């Protein structure tokens, strides 16, 4: 329901794809289209997520979470693990997880504003990085 997700949704529909948008708050999707289904889903609940993954060809996650100033944002890794497990159960392989620049800690000092990256979004980036490291261990997904 954020900017990236809304943009991706518009592109997918413009390319004539059938899209099921799994969202926390369905009312945030104002777009209407005959090939769009919007469904509420708790991606932290594997049972809820599994019923949706069973019916799809691919998963694209544009999920975002609020900034945590004093700890790593843990939800990216949990969502990746849930999606990965559900896709494996369903025999699905195609997944895209939209993240950000500078998820690799070595790249963060090259940012135009390393202070901002480190102190304001560093914990979000670290959460994304942990998710990416988990993905690198999978052999059942094409991501």
Properties at a glance:
41% helix; 5 helices; globular; alpha/beta; two-stranded parallel ribbon; 143 residues
What summary fits the major beta sheet? 2 strands, parallel
Q: Which of globular, elongated, flat, extended, rod-shaped describes the shape?
A: globular
The unreliable regions are none
What percentage of amino acids are in beta strands?
A: 5-15%
- Structural class by SSE content: alpha/beta
Task: Output the number of helix runs.
Answer: 5
How much helix is in the residues? 40-55%
Number of strands: 4
Mean of residue pLDDT values = 93
N- to C-terminal distance? 22 Å
What is the gyration radius calculated from CA atoms?
Answer: 16 Å
SSE topology string: HEEHEHEHH
Strand order of the largest sheet: 1-2
Structure characterization notes:
The structure is a single chain. The strands form two sheets. This protein has a two-stranded parallel ribbon. The chain has a two-stranded parallel ribbon with strand order 3-4. 41% of the residues lie in helices and 13% in strands. The chain has helices at 3-14, 46-53, 75-90, 114-119, 122-137; strands at residues 19-23, 36-40, 58-61, 94-97. The longest helix is centred in the middle third of the chain and has 16 residues, at 75-90. The chain contains five helices and four strands, in the order H-E-E-H-E-H-E-H-H. The protein starts with a helix and ends in a 6-residue tail after the last helix. Helix 3 links the parallel strand 3 (58-61) and strand 4. The radius of gyration is 16 Å and the shape is globular. The model has no long low-confidence stretch (mean pLDDT 93). With 143 residues, it is α/β, with parallel strands linked by helices.
